[in-house]
Amino acid sequence: MKKHLVAVMLGLGLLGTSGMASADISVPHLETTGSGEITVQPDMAVFSVAVEEVKPTAQAAKQAADQAVTAFVERLLAQGLERSQIQSANISLQPQYTYPKNNAPQLKGYRASRTITVTVNELDNLNMYLDNALGDGINRINAIELKVRDEKAFQEQARQAAIQDAISKAESLAKGFGEKLDGVWQISYQSNQPRPIMMRMAMDSPNEAAMTYQDAQIIIRDQVAVTFKLED
User: Fold this and answer.
1) Are the beta carbons of 51 and 142 closer than 8 angstroms?
2) FRET label pair with 101: which of 60, 127, 138, 165, CA 20 to 30 Å apart?
């Protein structure tokens, strides 16, 4: 009876960290939450750039935006990227007005914008593509997301580290209370996603960002909550 009370009290004490319902477990037990973390260097990236053109007519604005996108896409293809790595959004066309004081709004032209998203499998080429965008009429870099190609393998490493952490904690707790583990009773797991590196920068500073994304790191984390049985 004494061991049963000790085990239940220990399980309740750890309930807040694991989120498991101790009241539903009828055997002596303890609960632990294991965490694992893997730090990796990115080897690929996804970046988004855009062109915005304001012209007196809708047709002129559209043509200017389309020309910039076409030039940039053709350059990327010539440099060896596959068409599947390049996604260009439909054009957005909006009238632009001025608002003189005490007068009706006046149409001053049209703003056309298009966005291009590019997947880069060779991180060493990222800065070259960004420089090319400037030369082809692209006038905004929205974001750069650094990623790792073999994400599943690193996620598995983080998961196994979390499992070992849960076991180590359980063994330490049981030993400290003079108890022994008797297998796993319940596992609670929710997949964790890696934390991507997002970068935003002005169009006049791609070279300053080059060293930043070359030296960046991605942290991949995982966590598992486990209920262990205790020997009677």
Assistant:
1) no
2) 60
CA distance linking residue 26 with residue 31, whole number of Å: 13
The tokens for 8 are 């239940």
pLDDT (tens digit, 9 = 90+) per residue, 202-212? 444 445 555 55
| Token pair for 117 | 């998203």
Give the gyration radius of the chain's Cα atoms. Answer: 28
CATH of 2-40+151-194+221-230, one of 3.20.20.30, 3.30.110.170, 3.30.565.10, 3.40.50.300: 3.30.110.170
pTM above 0.85, yes or no: no
87 compared with 101, residue with greater pLDDT: 87
Cα–Cα dist 66/22, whole Å:
62
